[in-house]
Structures are given as structure tokens and as C-alpha cells.
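Troubleshooting entry. Yesterday's outputs looked truncated, so today I'm pasting the complete records for two proteins to confirm everything comes through intact. If either block looks cut off, that's the bug. Protein one:
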Amino acid sequence: MRRGVLALSLLLLTAVGVLAPPAHAGDAAKCTLRHITTVDMGISAGGRLTVPMTVGGQNLTMEVDSGGADSALNDAVVKTLGLRKDDISRAHVTMFGGTAITGMATGHDIMFGGLKAAKIDFLVIPDGRLQPGIDGLLAPDILRAYDDEFDFAAAKFSLFSPDHCPGAVVYWAKDFAQIDISLDRTGHIGIPVTLDGKEVKFDVDTGAEYTTLDWGMAQDLFGIDEHAPGVTRLTSDSGQVYYKYTFKGLTFGNAVSGAVTVSNPDILLVPYETSRMRGAIANVIGLGVLRKLHLYIAYQEHHLFVTSATAH
């Protein structure tokens, strides 16, 4: 999901058996990277990144959506759990493509990888808008309370305490790219990347299957139009038009901070009529690229750390 404008308060789930270091801990202890929990990641039949969560005693499959606004449940799940749905139509929350979110419900007895919460407020997504087998979204209202690690090679999603020394997080590899991130008020992660030699701002969106670039920016920056060699026109079942183009390389970081390049990324070029978003707001790095990487998001530090998926 993309571009909701309603931001809930951050919710810190309670870790079972995980305690912060005592107040008198020395500098070495403060720098220690503290693991909170790890769960298995899956990729759904529709190409979505999923993790397990329990709400009200019901096991759910949640899509991890760093490009969302607030965590959400399908309307059908809300009805099954017997939750009251409150109207939030005045908040003007929308999904990619313009679908309005008009309801919110409070789930109880939440469990996630050994973490517990008495309740969480969820947006209610109309049925049919999430792919089959996906019960809801785990979004930045929860994700940014922690550091988040996506280990795609091992299919593991981990949460860490954000209380550590700056930059002391990449435990799995010697070389990595460290990238400054910008966060909007809903927690979307904006980063500069180099695409075929030109710097372009993208959002890191684990809820997007594909990497997308605004059609107008593709035309202005790279001189690409629908008649350019290598451009393929695509039409969805609902009649939405996209263009696909294979670029030479997308690079995270630089020579100073470290760099990681994904070669020959396939990128969807999206007209405004399809996305209802203009300019960089429509640019997202999705799973097609992200699955080739190992990511650590330090929200409070405002850094993204990147290696190749197989780095060690």
C-alpha cells in the first residue's frame, strides 16, 4: 500500500524475555546490537513479502509493507474477529491507484515472534484489494519503533533495538553501503540512488512487487518514450497502462559510503493516470530489486545499510 496520510502513534510491542541493559551499563554495552525477535519470511504466490502474526487467537499472514502508512487488516478478517469498524473517511487515507480507506478497527491480543501487545488499531482494507492469502499489512506505525533487518537469502525478518552506537549494525559482512534516508511523517523511507548514471530519489517499499519510476521522470531524465528501443507496453486486467524497461544498473550508496549495484533491473514506468501520483512520489524500489539485497533499516539513526543478499 502507498501514501496514506493518517499516522498512528508508534506502538512498542512488549518483548518476552528481552530487557534493556541497566542504566549504569558501560559504553561497550550501549554499543551492543540487541536482537529483539526473528520470524520466518515468505513470498506469497503473488510475490508479496509475508510474516506470521496472531490477532485475537487467529493466525494471520501479514504483508510487510514499509511503503504503507499504518498496519491494516482485510475487511473479511475484521468481520471474522467480530471487531467494531469505526469511520475514518475524513482522514483521506488512500491506497496505490486511489482506493479510499474509510474504516479502522482495534485488534486485541496481538502476538508477533514472541512479542505481545494488548491491542493495536488497524486500518480496514476493502476486500479484494490485497492479494489472495494476505490477511493484512504490517506497516511503519510498528516497523519504525525498531531497527528492521531483511535477510532475503535466509528468509528471515528480524527486529533489533534502535539503542546502539551509530553505524554499528552490519554484523554479517565486512563491506556494505550506508545510505542517508529521509522519513516523511508516515514513515516512508526515501533514499537517493544512482540509476544509469543519474541520481533519482526512490522510496524503499517492501509492499511493492515491482520497482516503479514515474513515466514523466523517465521521459525527462532518460529520454525514454513509448517508442524507445526496449520499452514494452503492458496493460493490467483492469485496463491500467504501464511500460517496462530494463536499465543497466541501480546503485545504492557511493564510493565514499560504500556501494552496492543491482545490474539490469526491470523497472515499470508508471503514468499518472495509473498511479494517481506525480514525480518522485511514484518512484518505489520493490521486491524485484530488494530480494537481491540484505537490508538493515535504522529508522532512528536515519540510515539504510545494504549488502548483496549473499554477502558474508
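Protein two, checking that the full record survives here as well:
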Amino acid sequence: MEKIVERLRRARAVQLVGHIHPDGDCIGSLLGLHHMLGQWGVAHAMAAGGGGAGGYDLLPGYELIREEPDPAFAPDLVVFVDTASLERGPESWRASAPIINIDHHGGNTRFGEINWIKDSAAATGEMIYQLARHGAVTITPALAEALLVALSTDTGSFRFSNTGALQHRLAAELIEAGAMPTRVAKIGFESQPIESLRLTGRVLSGLRLTAGGRLAWSEARAADYAEMGGPERAPENLVGALRSVRGVAVAILFHELPERRMRVNFRSDGSFDVRALAERWGGGGHTGAAGLTLEPVDYEAKREEILRTVTELLDRG
């Protein structure tokens, strides 16, 4: 942390980068660093490809996040947050300055000059809070709110197995600093467009149980997305609703995307390592939550391959 704070404070211009299809942790972490660098008077810009279906536009500074870094902005330092590999970053941009890599995914490829990877952290936002405290940053209400959004969304509102006493203590400190739990809940969980709710209904109505009830899966097909307004309408933790069925050890949500692309989300009850599962097809994540994107692919053939593999693994016990 000392090295990161030193590099940030003496930088002339910093490009902050998050992963494609940014979630609450990614956006909250970007905005946390945005508020930190603002206090230090360091010029900076933010980018994270694609939007989400939540209410993150209610966060101060969100409007400054571009889908791609501005080519006219010339940073002397680049900071990636919550991004496990360069391939998860902006599709048509590569950093031309030294990289600091801050992430909580154990499968991170360590692509930075400085790599702070802490897979014991519940969220990258938790690490940004520790960095802010280490750098003697004033935890303003806007900074606290961004980081509480990051922490609450990546813990599933403090329901996931990555939640412990530390996360509750951090949340309490952020609330004491000015974050309002009701507003954070609205931003992270209660600001879905109506198309997202309709898509949720479509996915839940297609829920299937296999492997003796231990595997739950569903899908969002291309026709569903065409009707509902596109893949960006998918709620952030839709696969978690599938995992909530009693007796389910693994849940899988398949997404059929344009241009023969396919995204797959995995969730586990903790008894099954879905990160190792995702890594079989080039993905990654955490033990209890992982995913992957494939292209080009025969959607139905790959879906059946993945289902067959998971079923076989579950049947082995």
C-alpha cells in the first residue's frame, strides 16, 4: 500500500480502468479512487466498458466514466481495479504507461508493474478503503458511499460466504463517514429498469433442476435479449436467484450473445469450487462465484458440454 500511495501521489496523470460489463464493486472502486485522487489534486480519467443494469448513475462521479479511455488523455500511470486480466479490460485499448493492478480475484494474471492481489478481500472496494486509510485520505460521504456500494454488492448485501466480521466493521465505518444504507441499497439493488425484472421472470420461469436437485440452471437466449433491450439489461446477480433453491450446490446461467458469443455465470453454495470449473474454459473468479465468456461458439453444443461436465463432477461427490 505504501508503494501504491507513493506512486499515486507523485503521478502527473492517472488513467483508472475497470473491467468490461462493470459491476458494483468495479464502479465503486473506480469512484473511490476518483475521490481519493481528487483530494490529492492528481489529474485522472476513468474507463470501464459497457454499462450495468443497476442504479450506479446515482453515484457522484459516475457520469465521468467512459466506455473506452480517451486517446487524448496521456497518463504516466495506469491503475486497473477489479480486473483479473488485461483481456477483461477495454477491448481496443492497451496501456502505454506503468500499471498498478489492484484486485481480489485469486486467478489474477499479475499483469502490472505493481500487483496488489488480495483474494481474502470480499471486494476490491474493501482494498480501496484500506488504501485510503493508509494514505490518510478524508473519508467523505461520497467516497464512503462508493465503497459501501462496492462492498455491499460483492457480498450480496452481506449474505455471501465472503462476509465476515471485518466486512461488517468496514460497513459501519463507512456509514459513520456518511454513507446512507437505504440509498446504497437503492443504488445497488432497487433501481432496476423494468426490462431487467421482465428478464428475471423469463430466466426464473426457465429454471431446470438436474443432478438430483444439486444443479440449477437457466438461460437468457438471444431472442430474450432482443425483446428486453440487450445483454446490459441482465441484473448483476441473476444467477444467485437460481442458487437460492434449497439443495442446490451449483447454479449456472447461460447467456447467448450477439456475434456467436456466450457468457456463463457460475455460483456455488461453498461445497464446490466454481472458479476451477470456469478455468476449464478460460474463465475465472472466486470459489463461490465465477464466470467466462466464449467466442465464437456453438451455443447449444457448448451449453450441453458444460452441463454434462458439471453433472459428472457433482455425481462423483
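Both blocks look complete. Sanity check on protein two: Residues 11 and 165 are 35 Å apart (CA to CA).
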